[in-house]
Hints:
Elements lengths: L2 H22 L7 H29 L12 H4 L5
Helix pairs in contact: 1-2
Amino acid sequence: MNDSAENDIMATIRGLIDEEHALRSTSEGLDPNDRTRMKEVETALDQCWDLLRQRRARSEFDQNPDEAEVRPASEVENYRQ
Length: 81
């Protein structure tokens, strides 16, 4: 597995989680812009986790993990973690 690519994906996930936590910690609640951004962050997280799972599955079955692709939000949103 390309550790660099996986590390990049994990770094993106950590950054998105940090942003999600920051948005959720707002004591006065989310304004419309924050709610929109929260949805974007949640979607991006779904896509990143899906890409990471694809890469790991491809490696496990002796396929090239670099052939994994980000799937459309409509396909990955609402995945159960």
